[in-house]
Amino acid sequence: MSAPLVPILLVDDRRENLVALAALLETRSDLDIVLANSGEEALRQLLIRDFGLVLLDVQMPDMDGFEAATLIRANPKTRQVPIIFVTALMHDADFEFRGYESGAVDYLVKPLEPFILHAKVEVFVNLYRQRLALAEHERYMAHVEQLVVERTGHRPNHDNKLRVLLVDDRPENLIALEAMLMEMDDVLLVKANSGSEALRAVLRYDFAVILMDVQMPGMDGFETAELIRSNPKTHLIPIIFVTAGMKTINSVTQGYRQGAVDYLIKPLEPAIVKSKVKVFCDLYKHRLSIEKHSTYLEILVADRTSALQNSATELTENNERYRRLVEKLELATRAAGLGIWDWNVVSNELVWDTRMMELYGYSADSFGGSYRDWISRLHPDDRVRCDVAVQNALYQGQPYDTDFRICLPDGRICDIKADGKVVFDELGQPLRMTGINYDVTERKRAAEEVRLHRDHLLELVDERTASLKAIVDHAADGIITIDRVGTVLSFNTAAERMFAYPANTVIGNNISILMPTSVAKEHNAYIQHYLKTGEAHIIGSGRELQGRRSDGSIFPLYLAVSETKVGEQLRFTGIARDISSQKAMEANLIQAREVAEAANLAKSVFLSNMSHELRTPLNAVIGFSRLMSREESLNEHQRQNLEIINHAGNHLLTLINDVLELSKIEAGRTQLTEESTDLPRLLQEVGAMLRGRAEQVHLGLHLDMSGLPSTVRVDAIKLRQVLINLLGNAIKFTQQG
Fold first, then answer.
1. Under 8 Å between Cβ of 75 and 66
2. How many CB atoms lie within 10 A of CB 309?
3. CA 337 – CA 518 distance, rounded (Å)
C-alpha cells in the first residue's frame, strides 16, 4: 500500500506567490498542497485537518505571519504543527528573533532556491510520517511491552538523554554553543574540536543532531559531513552547518548536497539555535519510539511464529488458533485486570478469554460466543450507543474507544472501558475485531467521590466568599479593588455611599472616574510607572487625597493602598475614608486658635502701653519722695512715711518694668540698640541706685571694676535693666553678706 499524502499548507495574501510556491513543490507526488490567502483562512484550515508543515508569509494585511503563528501555537490542537516563515527580506536580528519567538522553526528568504526548499520540506515530511506511525503504535504500546516482559523476563531500559554533537576547532565557540543549549534538560552535549574527532564520536554514540562548523583546518565541515553520510551507520544523523557566512549560493547548495539539513549563521541567536535543535531532537525521539515499537513487534512475531510452529495442528482451524492466542495472553493481562476478546466479523464468532468471562459473569458453558451475547449483557440505556460505536469502527474507520455499563446475573451493575482494533482485507472490508475490556467501576466510584468532595469544597468556598463579601459590604470604610490597568473589580457598600455611585456603574470602568480631573489624567501613568520601576508613592502606605462624587463635588479622603496577587493576576486594594468632618473640625480649631492668639497679642500690646503710662507718674512719685526725705525739718514719723512711699514705689516700679518687658516680648516689640557706653560709669550708677536698698537689709554692696574696659558697645538700657534685675534679686534673696 502506498504511503498517504502529506498535507502542506501554503499561506500568502498574494495569489501569484501561492501559485509560484505550489509550482516549486508540484514535482513531489507525495504532497497534498492546500492554499490559504490570509492568516484567518490558515487558522480555519488548521482546525479542519492536520498538516505536516505550514509555509507562512510574514507580511500580510490584517493578520500578519507573526500573529497567525502565535495563535497557532496557542491552540493545543495545532501547537505541534511546524511553521516555516517565508519573507522577501530579513530586516534585522530582532525581526528574525520575533519569528522564532512566535513559534517558527525556520525561515525561507525570497527568491526561493528550489533545492533548499525541497531539503527543508523533506525533513518535515519525514517528521510527519514518523509522527503518524508513532500515533498508530502508541495505543498498543503498554499492552505490547507487557507481553515482551512476559516473554523475555526483563523490561528494556531506554536512556532519556538525547546526545547532540557540537563540532568546532575553536574552544570558545564550543563553549558558546554549550551555554545556549545547556537549559535543555533532556539533551546531553558532546563536543569535538575537529572533523576526525567528530567521526570517532558518531561511531561510538548515536546522535539526535550534529552542529558542525564549516571552516575547520585539516578536514572541513563539508568533508566531515560527506564521510558521515557515506557510512550506513551514521547517514541518517541530521547535520546543521554553523558558519560566519556563505559567500555564494553555490556554497550554500554544496552544504545541502553534502547532507546538511540547515544552516546557522554567526553570530548565533540562542532562541533560534534551541528552536532548531529541538525540532531534530523531537524527530529523533519519534524515530527511537518507532524503532522500539518495531523491536517489540519483531519479538511478538517471533513468539507467535514459534507458537504456530509448535501447534501446527491447531493452525488448521481459526477458532483454535485464536483461542490459543487468548490463552497465551491471559497471563500478561491478568495482573492488569484486562479481558481480551476477538470477534470474527464474517462468521460472527466471538472468542473471550477467562478474564472476559469473569467480568461479564458468564461460565464457559453459558456463553454463546456471538455478538448478540455481548450486547445482551449491556445496560439497556447503553446498547444503541455501543452498537453505533462498533459500526463506526467497522465501516467508518473510526477508533473503537468507549465505555458502558453491564448488568451482571446477581443484579450488580459494573462500568467497563473498552478498546478495539479492526483488521481489514485488501478491499477494505472488515475481517475481525480484537480488543480488551477492563472494569472501571471502582475508578468511576472514586471519581464520583472526588467530584462530590470537590462540590463540597466549592460550597465551602462559596460560603466563605459570601461571608467575606458580607464583611466587606458592611465595613465602615470604602473598599475598592482594581487590576493592573486601573479597571474597578469590586466596590463595596460604604464606597457606594461615599462616592454616591452604585456599584454596577463603577465596576468595569477605570478608577479615574472617582478622582478630580487633574489627578485622573496622571493616575494610569502612575500605575504603569510603578509596574515598570517598582517605585511606590502610595502603595503600601496611606495619604490624604481628594475624591469626586457622582455629582462632581470634591471631598477630602484618606486612602491606604495594598498590592496582592490572585493567581498570576496583580490586584490593588484601596481602603478609603471620608475625612470631611475631621477637616471641618481642624478648620474650626485653627480659627479658634487664631482668635485666641489675636486676643493674647492685643492684651500684650495693652499691657505694654499701660505699663509705660504707669511708669511716668510713678517715677515722679519716687523722685519727689526722695527730695522730700532730704528736708531737715521733717520729723521721724514723716521720714518713716516717706521711706514707706519710696520703698513701695520702687517695688511697684520693678513690677511695672517686669510687666513692660514681658509685654514687649509677647507683642514682638523688643529691640536692641548698640552704642558706645562708658561701662564703669554705668556700673557706678547701678551701684549707687541699689546701694541704699542693700543697706536697708544690712548688706554691703562693693563695686570692683579692676580689669574692665572703659568703653563697650551694648544696649545700655537693656544692660542696666539686666544688672538691676540681677542685683535686685541678689539683695532680695541674700540674708547676710
1. no
2. 9
3. 74
What are the CA-CA distances from residue 644 to residues 105, 618, 690, 696, 735 (Å)?
A: 118, 14, 16, 12, 21
Distance CA 720, CA 678 (A): 12
Q: Choose among 508, 494, 466, 474: nearest CA to 576.
A: 494
The per-residue pLDDT for 314 is 54
Closest CA to 440 of 432, 448, 451: 448
User: Which residues lie below 8 Å from residue 1, measured CB to CB, with a gap of 6+?
Assistant: none
- What residues contact residue 420 under an 8 Å CB cut-off, 6+ apart? 393, 400, 401, 433, 434, 435, 436
What does the alpha-carbon distance between residue 575 and residue 559 come to, in Å, rounded to a whole number?
Answer: 6
CA distances from 404 to 164, 385, 477 (A): 48, 9, 58
Q: Which residue carries 546543521 as its cell? A: 240
Phi/psi of residue 480, nearest 5 degrees:
-130, 135
Grid coordinates representing 348 are: 460472527
Edge-to-edge, what's the strand order for the sheet holding 239-243?
187-192, 162-167, 209-213, 239-243, 260-265
- Give the pTM: 0.32
Cα(336)–Cα(147) distance, integer angstroms? 12
Residue with cell string 472468542: 351
Q: What is the dihedral angle through the alpha carbons of 622, 624, 626, 631, rounded to the nearest 10 degrees? A: -160
Taking the CA atoms of residue 46, residue 52, residue 57 and residue 60 in that order, the dihedral angle to the nearest 10 degrees is: 0
pLDDT at 267: 83
pLDDT of residue 450: 86
Question: Buried b / exposed e across 359-370, counting CB within 10 Å, b at 16+?
Answer: bbbbeeeebeee
Do 194 and 168 meet the contact criterion of CB atoms below 8 Å apart? no
Which alpha helices (H) appear in 630-715, and where do they start and end?
Answer: 636-667, 679-696
**Three-state secondary structure call for residue 361:** coil
- Helix pair 270-310, 171-181: axis angle to 10 deg: 70
pLDDT given at position 201:
92
Q: Identify whether the C-beta of residue 495 lies closer than 8 Å to the C-beta of residue 576.
A: yes
Give residue 559's pLDDT. 83
C-alpha cell at 18: 501561492
204 residue type, one letter: R
Give the mean pLDDT per block of 10 residues along the chain (737 residues): 81 91 88 92 91 91 90 88 86 76 84 86 87 70 62 56 90 89 86 92 90 89 88 87 74 75 83 85 79 67 63 57 58 64 91 86 84 90 93 90 92 91 89 90 86 85 74 77 86 88 88 81 73 71 81 87 78 84 83 79 68 67 74 78 72 64 58 84 81 81 85 84 84 79
In DSSP notation, 691-711 reads HHHHHHTT-------TT--SE
- Counted residue by residue, the chain has a size of 737
